[in-house]
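ok so i was messing around last nite and threw this chain in just to see what happens. nothing serious, just curious
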Amino acid sequence: MKFQVNRDVFSEAVSFAVKLLPQRTTLPILSGVLIETTETGLTLSSFDYEVSAQTEIAAEVEEQGKILVSGRLLADIASRLPNAPVQFSTEEGRISVTCGPAKFTLLSMPVEEYPTLPQVSAQSGLLPADAFATAVAQVAVAASRDDVTPVITGVQLEVSENSLTMVATDRYRVAVRAIDWDSGDTGSTETLTALVPARTLQEIGKTFGHSGTISVAITNTDDRELIAFRADRKTVTSLLIKGNFPPVKRLFPETVDNYAVINTAELIEAVRRVSLVLEREAALRFTFTLDGVTLEAIGSEQAQASESIDAHLSGGDTVVSLKPAFLLDGLGAVHSEFVRISFTKTDNPNKPGPVLITSQSSKDQPGADNYKYLLQPNLLLR
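result:
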C-alpha cells in the first residue's frame, strides 16, 4: 500500500474518524482506524459496535491496499505534521509515514480481526444541517447522564410527515424542539422513531452543523436498530437505545395565562451572581410581582444574596424555587433577546407546577423556534 495525501485533508479526516471512539475499550482492535484505498483516494473508518464513522478523501494512490492503525496515535501525529504532503507506505506489518523532514514508523494492527462496518439502507429523509445542530444543542442538555436508566440517556427523534421532533428528559426537566423534515424521493408519511444516545447525537450535531443538508436513514437489520447521518462524504451510524421512552410530551400545557417576560441576558447574569453563595444542589427562590422578579439565595450563615431585575408579569404574583444549573441550561438554549417563563398549576394550590421556558422575540411577541423547556421546581417550605 502506498499513497500521498494533503496534510490538512488527512488530519481532518483522521480527527473525524476517531472523534466518536471511546477513550478506553476492552478490545484494543476497536481503537484502530481502517484506511482503504479506492479508485479516487481513501476511505477512513472507525467502529466500536455502537457507533461508526466513515469518510472519503482524495489522494494519489500508487499501490492499492488496506491497513489498520491506532486511531488516537495517528490523529495526534497527523495534527502535528509539518506543512507538506503526507506519504504513506507499508512493508512487512509496518507503516511508514513521511511528511517533509518528519518520519514515523507505526505497527499495523491485524485487519482480518476488524469487524465489518454496518450497512445502512436507503435514506429516510433530509434535514437542514444548521437547524439540526441548533436543535440538538438545545434538547440534548436535558438528557440524563445516569446510565442506570439507559432509556433517558438518549434523545427521542420522532418523525412525522414534514417535521422531526426531538425530546429529552432526566425526570427533572423536559426539552422539546421540532425542525423541518423532508422525506425526499421516498414521499413516505410513515411515523418513525429513534432513541439516539445524547452524547453521540451532540457530536453528530457539531460535526454536521455546517453541511447544508443531512441525509438520515433509520434502519432495522440483523436485529440491530441503527440510525445513520450522511453529509459531505462523511457517514456516522449509531446503535439505537432499546426501550420505551416515557410519554413526557403530554406534560406540556396547551396554554398558560400566568407568565413573566424577562430579558434573557439580564436573567442569566443575575442567576449566576446570586447563586455564588449557594451550597451545592440548593435552589434559588424567585418572587415574581408586578414590580419585577427578585432572586434570593440563602447559602449559609456566612453568605446570602439577592437581586431584583425588570420583568413583565401577566397574571398573579408567583413564588418558585429552581435549581440554578437546570435553569441556566434552559435559558442558554433560548436564542432570543427575551424569555417567557410560564407558571403551570397543580391540583394542590400550595404546590407550584413546573415552569415552562420558551423563547420570546420581544416583550409582546413569542419566539418562532417552538423550543420548549419544562422545569420542575423544588417544593417550597411554607
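not much to say yet. The chain is about 15% helix and 40% strand.
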